[in-house]
């Protein structure tokens, strides 16, 4: 049999799991009546000290909604296309012998799936701050004959959710820097701007994860965040934004000798809005000096209703912004912040730095500003790129899924993974919940927790409501 994986007749649902998941239904013991699994946070690798050990759980409902769409597409497909796809998977790819009873058993499991996905989900609210060993999603089978489907979707849920949690958690870590500087939570913040779209793993990845940034900040250049906001989170475009900005191609077209003229041309093009102008195409220090020396350029800067934003995006961010004592150039020794303040004032020329920004580098610059009498939230924006938002793995936020409870022949079983060779992988056990009042995780249960923080409500909240909730969560974990 010859098939083509790209053939659209095969429903996507058939391909969403790791291969080993496809045969588990035939390995389960007789008498299995119900199973229960937990997706939870376990020993995240990120430095979460700024958030008192919490990750930000985000993206669960969008992942479940997409899964349900894939399930509906599967159920709408013709039986012929499903059978063909299953034969491609089990016979052509996995080389299962069709004479085996298990082969036909597995095919029948797929063909007998009900019209509605056979899983009952409970989920923490979007944007919840979750400590290690706390549940994010619980899943229980609703059809005895399809217990297998609960853990089949584990791969899908982990792959769809971990990046959204990573971006949201790192955004919260940046938010802590701003919070420590101001001493309060800034509701409308443009101090950290999302520059990560080009460095994500395709625009679908950016679509899924870039909402995590705008839970805490208004500024984004990731247009897939705007698309996602419009599609699912209330279409409140007024809660996010960006400004006109040049790039190196714009500056190069004007030539190095015409760089000041390029600045003036750009300022004339946007007289009634802020505009960001890249300044490191050639000699950062010379262009700052040139803007000061050129009478017309200087007057344009001083007389504008809105400031320009200087973007010096090459080199060590800390040394470029705060000064490099080892430089032979006096201007470089001063650094961009002091130089701009001296030449133009930081109310007329603001600064955005968007290259290789990490939590550690951002905090170092903020600390320097505080020590030198500057309030960075008044003039400085950091562009957060994929260096922070895509340099991570699932282990950074500790997302794992484990089956923790089952009913076999009428008897409840508390399942536990407890490897002697890896104690850090000790799993939760039994049914699990979070007490809504104390926020303590409860396990070893046989029924749902009465005051469970996890909810059956799978509706996706608006961004405005989300921001209010994450603010409360942020302040709660800071005590």
General description of the model:
It contains 17 helices and 14 strands. The protein has a five-stranded antiparallel β-sheet with strand order 3-5-1-11-12. The protein is of the alpha/beta class and 479 residues long.
Structure in a nutshell:
This protein has 479 residues and is α/β, with parallel strands linked by helices. It has helices spanning 60-76, 79-93, 101-111, 148-152, 154-182, 203-209, 223-232, 248-254, 259-269, 284-293, 295-303, 317-322, 330-343, 359-371, 386-389, 394-397, 463-478, and strands at residues 32-41, 54-57, 119-123, 128-131, 134-141, 192-194, 275-278, 308-311, 349-353, 380-384, 399-408, 411-414, 431-434, 441-445. The termini are far apart.
- Gap between N and C termini: 63 Å
How much helix, percentage-wise, in residues?
A: 25-40%
Q: Helix count, per DSSP?
A: 17
Global shape: elongated
**Radius of gyration, rounded?**
27 Å
Arithmetic mean pLDDT: 93
Strand elements, count: 14
Give the low-pLDDT segments.
Answer: none
Task: Determine the structural class based on helices, strands and strand pairing.
Answer: alpha/beta
Write the layout of secondary structure elements.
Layout: E1 32-41, E2 54-57, H1 60-76, H2 79-93, H3 101-111, E3 119-123, E4 128-131, E5 134-141, H4 148-152, H5 154-182, E6 192-194, H6 203-209, H7 223-232, H8 248-254, H9 259-269, E7 275-278, H10 284-293, H11 295-303, E8 308-311, H12 317-322, H13 330-343, E9 349-353, H14 359-371, E10 380-384, H15 386-389, H16 394-397, E11 399-408, E12 411-414, E13 431-434, E14 441-445, H17 463-478
């Amino acid at each position: 049999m010859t098939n083509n994986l790209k053939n659209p007749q095969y429903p996507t649902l058939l391909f969403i799991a790791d291969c080993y998941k496809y045969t588990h239904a035939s390995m389960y013991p007789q008498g299995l009546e119900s199973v229960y699994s937990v997706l939870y946070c376990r020993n995240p690798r990120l430095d979460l000290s700024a958030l008192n050990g919490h990750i930000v759980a985000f993206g669960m409902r969008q992942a479940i909604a997409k899964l349900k769409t894939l399930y509906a597409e599967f159920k709408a497909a013709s039986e012929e296309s499903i059978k063909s796809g299953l034969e491609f998977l089990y016979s052509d790819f996995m080389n299962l012998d069709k004479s085996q009873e298990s082969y036909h058993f597995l095919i029948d499991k797929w063909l007998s799936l009900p019209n509605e996905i056979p899983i009952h989900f409970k989920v923490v609210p979007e944007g919840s701050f979750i400590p290690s060993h706390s549940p994010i999603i619980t899943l229980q089978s609703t059809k005895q004959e399809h217990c297998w489907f609960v853990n089949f979707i584990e791969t899908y849920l982990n792959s769809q959710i971990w990046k959204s949690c990573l971006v949201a958690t790192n955004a919260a870590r940046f938010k802590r820097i701003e919070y420590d500087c101001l001493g309060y939570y800034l509701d409308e913040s443009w101090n950290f701007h999302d520059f990560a779209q080009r460095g994500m793993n395709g625009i679908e990845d950016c679509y899924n994860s870039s909402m995590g940034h705008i839970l805490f900040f208004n500024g984004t250049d990731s247009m897939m965040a705007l698309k996602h906001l419009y599609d699912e989170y209330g279409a409140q475009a007024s809660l996010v934004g960006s400004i006109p900005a040049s790039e190196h191609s714009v500056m190069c077209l004007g030539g190095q000798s015409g760089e000041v003229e390029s600045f003036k041309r750009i300022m004339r093009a946007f007289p009634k809005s802020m505009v960001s102008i890249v300044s490191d195409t050639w000699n950062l220090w010379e262009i700052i000096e040139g803007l000061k020396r050129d009478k017309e350029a200087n007057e344009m800067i001083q007389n504008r209703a809105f400031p320009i934003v200087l973007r010096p995006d090459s080199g060590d961010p800390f040394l470029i912004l705060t000064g490099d004592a080892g430089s032979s150039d006096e201007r470089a020794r001063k650094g961009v912040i002091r130089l701009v303040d001296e030449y133009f004032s930081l109310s007329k020329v603001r600064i955005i730095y968007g290259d290789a920004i990490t939590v550690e580098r951002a905090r170092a610059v903020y600390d320097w500003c505080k020590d030198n009498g500057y309030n960075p939230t008044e003039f400085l924006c950091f562009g957060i790129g994929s260096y922070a938002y895509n340099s991570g793995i699932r282990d950074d936020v500790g997302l794992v899924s484990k089956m923790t409870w089952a009913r076999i022949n009428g008897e409840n079983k508390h399942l536990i993974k407890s490897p002697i060779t890896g104690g850090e992988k000790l799993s939760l056990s039994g049914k699990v919940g979070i007490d809504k009042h104390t926020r303590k995780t409860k396990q070893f249960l046989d029924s749902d927790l009465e005051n469970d923080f996890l909810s059956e409500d799978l509706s996706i909240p608006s961004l405005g409501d989300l921001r209010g909730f994450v603010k409360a969560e942020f302040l709660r974990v800071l005590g």
